[in-house]
Design brief:
Oligomer: single chain
Order of helices and strands: HHHH
Radius of gyration: 20 Å
Number of helices: 4
Amino acid sequence: MLTCKDASQLMSQSLDSRLGLFEKAGLRFHLLICHSCQIAYRQLDFMHRLCKRIAAGSEDITSLQPGLSAEAQERIIKELRRKQGEQSSPGN
């Protein structure tokens, strides 16, 4: 069983080169059970892709920015409007 420290080293290595079969399997298993490492891997992968785009001279890096889906944004907007309506209604 990999420790989080071992997993973080393998995550970094996996972005630059291919992992061996056992390393890859060990990392995948660790990521299945460790939520903190899942988050760390997503962040590391995002930074890696961003740096590659910047190094390549790409001006359009906005597509790499993590964000909410359009559906999630709409739900938040609706909820904010509902809350705003409750606050401005008489009796509050």
